[in-house]
Write a structure and sequence with these properties.
322 residues, mainly alpha, Peroxidase, domain 1, Peroxidase, domain 2, 2 domains, two-stranded antiparallel sheet, 2 strands, globular, binds protoporphyrin IX containing FE, binds 2-acetamido-2-deoxy-beta-D-glucopyranose
């Protein structure tokens, strides 16, 4: 009897492991190996020339992937344009007048449609373009899991609720990531993406005028002169998220946090006397540690609720449902 019990327990456990494996195991780095072998070269060369013209585009593409994955999973939903009868995610608070890089995605998509029509999803294009951006800007590389399909819907409301705002506290951030199955450790590693790119005055004004956990001369001499105190004046003026090396993917974001030079309130929350201080310290002294954890967190983020099998579709144009 006891023996029978333990055999059925083993069978149950094996079955559960199988389910676990097949839920995220549907994505595969070799997914387009025979259906579209050109995909890697097309994305890489297009992203290279985009970044050669405007280094910030690497940052913008990486951020698009984050904003895609956090809203109903990595399904290309952020790429859909609004129409008179369809509201997408582009005007959600974290996206409006802020997300960019859509023309690069269009360029990749049209080249890919010529080479292998109807095969490669827009969601996968974002995943590969993000990795390539990081590599081109001198960050780490990794194998991107592929096989996501594109959504036929979008959610303005989920974009507003699920993407964390820059006013977030450490516990606000931790809970938004936990809701996506990501740990506080993943959250800190992924935040290292702010080693590249820019933010608008409207998103760091309160931090540079009202917060006390910011190095005084950095706030007063570097930032206040470019970002006026009055709400509504100069809202779109830009400052680099990493004041030291804004177009290189390195660990200066974390070095800045240790010296209280985070640009956003939410950035400095990661090093403000709380539970994530030690991780920030460790990344600030080891880019190898940062790169390793960033890669595994990017792969985890890329696994959020993919559409596979007969769910979703392969869009012909990333901006429109077929
Ligand atoms: C931890 C929570 C996060 C918050 C609160 C946050 C917030 C922000 C804000 C407010 C901006 C500036 C937007 C603007 O002013 O127009 C920004 C930019 C950016 N974010 Fe985040 N972010 C977070 C996490 C991430 C993650 C996980 C990634 C990618 C893995 C990412 C990648 C970027 C990049 C690359 C930029 C610069 C984009 C550009 O220059 O076009 N962020 N973020
Ligand atoms: C988005 O930005 C535009 C242009 O600045 C503005 O007119 C519009 O009200 C904003 N939309 C939302 C939903 O905030
Ligand atoms: C952070 O969490 C607190 C407590 O749950 C909540 O009142 C506040 O609105 C949240 N702030 C943000 C920016 O999400
Ligand atoms: C700073 O805090 C004060 C008092 O809470 C508030 O009135 C003001 O709008 C805040 N922001 C700036 C940029 O001063």
């Amino acid at each position: 009897m006891a023996e029978h019990d333990s055999i059925s327990k083993v069978i149950t456990i094996l079955f559960l492991l199988f389910l676990l494996e097949s839920s995220s195991g549907q994505l595969d780095p070799n997914y387009y190996y025979s259906s579209c072998p050109q995909i890697s070269d097309i994305v890489k060369t297009t992203v290279e020339s985009a970044i050669a013209n405007d280094a910030r585009l690497g940052a913008s593409l990486l951020r698009l992937f984050f904003h895609d994955c956090f809203v109903n999973g990595c399904d290309g939903s952020i790429l859909l344009d609004d129409t008179p009868t369809f509201t997408g995610e582009k005007t959600a608070k974290p996206n409006n007048n802020s997300v960019r890089g859509f023309e690069v995605v269009d360029q990749i998509k049209s080249a890919v449609e010529k080479a292998c029509p109807g095969v490669v999803s827009c969601a996968d294009i974002l995943a590969i373009a993000s990795r390539d951006s990081v590599v081109i800007l001198k960050g780490p590389t990794w194998d991107v899991k592929l096989g996501r399909r594109d959504s036929k819907t979008a959610s303005l409301q989920n974009a507003n609720n699920d993407i964390p705002p820059p006013t977030s506290s450490l516990s606000n951030l931790t809970s938004k990531y936990a809701a996506k199955g990501l740990s506080a450790k993943d959250m800190v590693a992924l935040s290292g993406a702010h080693t590249i790119g820019q933010a608008r005055c409207t998103n760091f004004r309160d931090h540079i005028y009202n917060d006390t956990n910011i190095e005084a001369s950095f706030a007063r001499s570097s930032l206040q002169p470019i970002c006026p105190k009055l709400t509504g004046s100069g809202d779109n003026i830009l400052a680099p998220l990493d004041t030291h090396t804004p177009t290189t993917f390195d660990n200066y974001y974390f070095k800045n946090l240790v010296s209280k030079r985070g640009l956003l309130h939410s950035d400095q929350e990661l090093f403000n006397g709380g539970s994530t201080d030690s991780q920030v310290k460790s990344y600030s002294s080891s880019s190898t540690a940062f790169f390793a954890d960033f890669v595994s967190a990017m792969i985890k983020m890329g696994d959020i609720s993919p559409l596979t099998g007969s769910n979703g579709e392969i869009r012909k144009n990333c901006r429109k449902i077929n």
